[in-house]
Write a structure and sequence with these properties.
Helix 4 links the parallel strand 1 and strand 2. Helices cover 24% and strands 24% of the residues. The protein is α/β, with parallel strands linked by helices. The termini are far apart. It contains 8 helices and 17 strands. Strands 1-2-3-4-5-7-10-12-14-15-16-17 form a 12-stranded parallel β-sheet, covered by helices on one side. A 3-stranded parallel β-sheet has the order 9-11-13. Strands 6-8 form a two-stranded parallel ribbon.
């Protein structure tokens, strides 16, 4: 039976080999990267064929615990992929980390990969650097005209350097985690350089030497702010948000020094989760934070830390939720939370649905 099938199998292989490179590359594009790369050993013709089929490179979970020889082989592979003489790979998405980096010199080839991918019209990039000492990121990362999504997860202690000529005209999604900015101008420069920004996420970033953090964007539709692991002393500034197109707003962490939330009439269902409070400004800041959501019809509110002044907002005539018909309330550690919640409900005269998790 095996001998009868052999000529048929050879015929199939011959028909595949007779296909033009463009069709073979298209076929390989449906395979996982690992399987597509394995075809490079079939013959000389197939050696670089896989390169043109790869549009996504994700090294996020494959570089841990590698031996030195494996690291060298991996770096040679990426060099072959990005700089192969036969076909220029055009990536859409690139995720990279520095798990295999020992010192600053090791970042040179890594930065070369990033710059090369960006110069070829890369649309999405995610960078996860765990080392505290990282050279200044490539300028092209902040001046790319092709990037649509930029995700930065850094553990560096030094302040983030944003080039003065930063310009990301097509960037729609920006996610910043664990970054430190030396002043408010740097983050303002970065946000304002994204002319069509729609989705902004800021996780546990520190902003030094500023009195106000200003987030102003006419097109922003989704905003996530998380300050769960930020020290109170690093949150000594007022946050000003002006986003008339904002539909989704999520705030998690400490209640800071103060808030100015304006032009947020497009909000649908904001989610506010308070883990702890700035001791000096708690009552006023909590009122300001909620005041920007007064026009919504649905609100998700979670309080994980006891602060009695948070529920004294019924004393403030400005904070009345006339349009609110659905309230989802979560609280786990608040003392007398039932009494305080009843007091808070005086501010919600038209409430129809109340969901409690106490």
């Amino acid at each position: 039976m095996g001998r009868r099938q052999q000529p048929e199998t050879v015929g199939v292989l011959d028909r595949i080999n007779n296909l033009p490179d463009s069709i073979l590359s298209h076929i390989l594009s449906f395979l996982p990267n690992k399987e597509a790369v394995r075809t490079s050993i079939l013959s000389t013709r197939w050696k670089y064929l896989f390169a043109s089929s790869i549009s996504i490179l994700d090294f996020e979970h494959c570089l841990k615990n590698l031996y030195e020889e494996d690291v060298n082989n991996f770096m040679n592979f990426v060099d072959t992929l990005l700089f192969n003489p036969r076909d220029r790979v055009h990536l859409e998405s690139f995720r990279v980390n520095d798990y295999f980096v020992d010192d600053e010199d090791d970042y040179l080839p890594l930065y070369g990969w990033i710059s090369t991918a960006l110069s070829r019209g890369l649309k999405n990039i995610g960078i996860n650097f765990i080392n505290e000492k990282v050279p200044v990121l490539p300028t092209l990362l902040f001046t790319s005209h092709s990037l649509v999504t930029l995700t930065l997860f850094l553990h560096i202690k030094d302040d983030m350097k944003i080039p003065t000529n930063a310009c990301l005209p097509n960037l729609k999604n920006l996610c910043l985690t664990n970054l430190a900015f030396e002043d408010g101008y740097s983050i303002l420069k970065l946000i304002s350089s994204c002319h069509v920004l729609e989705d902004l996420t800021i996780y546990d970033c520190c902003f030094h030497s500023i009195s106000e953090l200003n987030i102003h964007n006419l097109l922003l539709r989704r905003l996530i702010l998380c300050f769960e692991h930020v020290c109170v002393r690093d949150y000594d500034y007022v946050m000003a948000i002006d986003a008339p197109s904002l539909v989704y707003f999520e705030y998690t962490g400490i209640v800071g020094k103060g808030y100015t939330l304006s032009n947020m009439k497009s909000l649908v269902k904001p989610e506010i989760s308070i883990s702890h409070f700035h001791e000096v400004h708690s009552e006023r800041s909590a009122t300001q934070l909620l005041q920007g959501t007064c026009n919504v019809q649905s609100l998700h509110l979670a309080i994980e830390a006891f602060n009695e002044t948070f529920f004294r907002t019924h004393l403030d005539p400005k904070l009345v939720f006339h349009n609110l018909v659905e309230l989802e309330f979560h609280s786990y550690y608040c003392y007398r939370k039932g009494v305080r919640l009843v007091e808070f409900l005086h501010n919600v005269p038209n409430l129809k649905t109340l969901i409690l998790d106490l």
